[in-house]
Design brief:
Layout: H1 24-38, H2 43-53, H3 58-68, H4 73-84, H5 90-106, H6 110-122, H7 134-140, H8 146-156, H9 162-171, H10 177-189, H11 196-205, H12 211-223, H13 229-237, H14 244-253, H15 259-264, H16 274-284, H17 287-297
């Protein structure tokens, strides 16, 4: 079956289709159909891709390589995603990575470049101390299209190579909000390095217009226990709109002084980040106070409560 042949519309396939019973070529056709109808990011498009990711053997790798050689950009983008799924097969990851790098070096489609960069991330070259993809990613991180810069920044996450860190710092000032967001996230939470340049870049971002980027910056500063971050978190919690990443930052410092401000967000009309908020409140609440609350919830008073009253059964 040709991977570039016209494929049926996604609504022709029953939702309860057992993907495990489909052949590799049938899964490719289904993913292609879903991509054309629903778009590349839809959950239904990813289902057959994930199913292929669980399958060993060269057939899946060869199918992905064939797709990346297609004259159709949507097929090449899909092929990059198939190659990303070879991360669990050590004998295939090297070949998959080489093909993704080839796409990044030669392709002209912004969608393909974005998809290949994002796919490369899943093969985790940095965790293997393999920096061969770095030069092309650094070049594409300055591409004129924000989608390509976004993909390149995503691929640089967790990379602690000095040139990669310098590029994340540069992209944290990108004109595109999504690129700035991912670059700030990368600097703040995805690397353990702590340098004056990283701190300075994160400090700049606490004045960002977007509340998620401000929260990512505060999380990075709190992770590094940078002096002054406590007051910055207090100021952020007093804003009319706060992202859950700011709650995460408060939880990292675990300061009881944050509790009244955090609890005020429980009844707010702001964005729902309940898990982040409750985790932060627990982290900032002294253990003795938690014991009291647990005892009260069970119908009694804690023996360690300030009054010293014994627990009533």
């Amino acid at each position: 079956m040709s991977t570039e042949a016209e494929t049926p519309r996604s609504n022709s396939a029953p939702e309860d289709r057992n993907l495990a019973q489909l052949s590799v070529q049938e899964l490719i056709a289904l993913a292609r159909a879903e991509q054309l109808v629903l778009g590349p990011e839809d959950e239904e498009t990813w289902r057959p891709i994930y199913e292929l990711g669980r399958r060993p053997g060269r057939e899946v790798l060869d199918a992905g390589l064939k797709l990346t050689q297609s004259t159709d950009a949507t097929c090449r983008q899909l092929g990059a995603r198939f190659l990303a799924q070879r991360r669990d097969f050590a004998d295939q990851a090297e070949e998959a990575q080489a093909e993704l790098v080839r796409l990044l070096e030669t392709d002209t489609s912004t969608e393909v470049l974005h998809g290949a960069a994002a796919a490369l991330t899943h093969l985790s070259p940095w965790q293997r101390d393999d920096y061969r993809p770095l030069p092309v990613l650094l070049r594409l991180a300055r591409h004129g299209d924000e989608l390509v810069r976004y993909g390149s920044v995503f691929a640089l996450l967790t990379c602690e190579h000095p040139e990669a860190v310098a590029m994340l710092i540069e992209r944290s000032r990108d004109l595109d909000e999504d690129v700035r967001n991912w670059a700030t996230f990368g600097l703040g939470s995805q690397i353990n390095l702590d340098t004056p340049a990283i701190r300075e870049a994160l400090w700049v971002q606490i004045d960002e217009e977007d509340e998620e980027i401000r929260g990512e910056a505060l999380t990075g500063l709190a992770h590094r226990k940078v002096p002054g971050v406590h007051q910055a978190i207090v100021r952020e919690l007093q804003r009319p709109c706060v992202h859950g990443t700011t709650f995460e930052a408060a939880g990292l410092l675990a300061d009881p002084a944050f509790v009244p401000l955090l609890e005020s967000w429980r009844e707010s009309d702001g964005p729902p980040h309940d898990l982040w908020l409750e985790d932060a409140i627990r982290a900032c609440t002294p253990a003795a106070a938690i014991d009291v609350r647990v005892a009260v919830a069970r119908g009694g008073a804690s023996s360690s409560s300030p009054s010293g009253a014994s627990t009533v059964p």
